[in-house]
Amino acid sequence: MSHTAISRPRTVVSCTLLVIALCAGITACGSDGNPLSHRPYDAADQISFNAPLEGREKADPDKPLEVVAEDSDGRITDVTAHDAAGRYVAGELAADGRRWHSTSPLAANASYTVRVSTEDEDGAPGRKVLTFDTGKPTTQKRLDVTFGPKAGTYGVGQPITAELSRPVKDRSQRAVVERALKVSSMPATDGAWHWVDDKKLHYRPKDYWPAQATIQVRSNLEGIKIGDRVRGGKAKPLTINTADKVIAVTDAAAHQMTVYKNDEIVRQIPVTTGMPGYDTRNGVKVVLAKEGTVRMTSASIGASDFYDLIVHHSVRVTNSGEYVHAAPWSVGSQGYANVSHGCTGMSTENAAWFYENIREGDIVKVINSGGDSMPAFGNGFGDWNLEWKQWRTGSALTAGTPEGPTPADRARLRPQSA
């Protein structure tokens, strides 16, 4: 990397970092004797820069950024650095103002603006703005991100997903990735990412999304160094909306489903859930799909009693085959007994209403069943079954260890059906 001196000849010591020498000696005292009463002076003749300036040669993006006050009479008061995409470089300023260094990586093939604020021994402020470009990375591998679900309107329980093109195991590298994945909502709400495994993250708020919200997701990873020979690639941004807050609560012991819309009861439905041995899972499930007419067979779950049924108004809530659906064959038991193989059955009329008024991302919650609890991951979206404190332990940016499905979770993933 070449060295460029600005405004006056001086010797520059070779190094691998960006060095800005800020020398005291110019005061900005006005007639009132107050050094702060004048505009900041131009510190151009006090700065040396050992990287190419103003679009000449390209700087190495793998080298960190550093600002140093070389004269004992001057100090740095602030440094900001950002690229043309608006991505800021995080950094730390020493307590004595002698040195600022970056703590986040630079992007490759990017244009940066660095703003340095200083003050001299008399307290007079100095300012300088520098620009430079980074070149191509020496790293060759790329980590791409794909966000989900697809654009559209969902219920307030819909998690955001991020699928990575290659695994990320190191916690510090996970922090780089996670910090660059941005989620915002209007109305605003707090949320966090959770590492499900080495290649998948889920994002959810502390509570459900607000109704009628707009949620925007984007990645700032492009060109950013993540690990040895790995940099971030492009990612298509995502915008989804939420509809009304719809939550269906099934009390398996009372054999009744209560449907709430924006926290008001809109319908109570007699139901039947899983019989002993096929108990419906307790916990919060997110509607995965409205599948309509589905063929359900005993072979799909290994049931000893044979059945082969065409089932209508089917709403899927787990990957392994748990549905809310029409069950005209069990109307006599609905509201009185649990006779299904794990699904929640109701009359055709009620199922048609439920199918019409439910959407992907809405919440279906089961209580008072003899079944296991819905796992957080691995069988659909059980994300809301983790308390907020537990959820945050899955973030690389907060205390705790990233976690995925436990052996106990995986053991609960037996399929269920009609």
Automatic annotation (TrEMBL):
GO MF terms, alphabetically ordered: acyltransferase activity; peptidoglycan L,D-transpeptidase activity
Signal peptide (residue range): 1-28
Any Pfam family hit: Big_10
Record bears the keyword Amino-acid biosynthesis: no
Highest taxon above the source species: Bacteria
Pathway(s): Cell wall biogenesis; peptidoglycan biosynthesis; Glycan biosynthesis
Residues forming the catalytic site: 325 (proton donor/acceptor), 343 (nucleophile)
Name recorded for this polypeptide: L,D-TPase catalytic domain-containing protein
Region (Disordered): 396-418
InterPro entries, sorted: Big_10 (IPR041280), LD-transpeptidase (IPR050979), LD_TPept_cat_dom (IPR005490), Transpep_catalytic_dom (IPR038063)
Keywords, ordered alphabetically: Acyltransferase, Cell membrane, Cell shape, Cell wall biogenesis/degradation, Lipoprotein, Membrane, Palmitate, Peptidoglycan synthesis, Signal, Transferase
Keyword Lipoprotein among record annotations: yes
Transmembrane segments: none
Classification via PANTHER family: L,D-TRANSPEPTIDASE, L,D-TRANSPEPTIDASE YCIB-RELATED
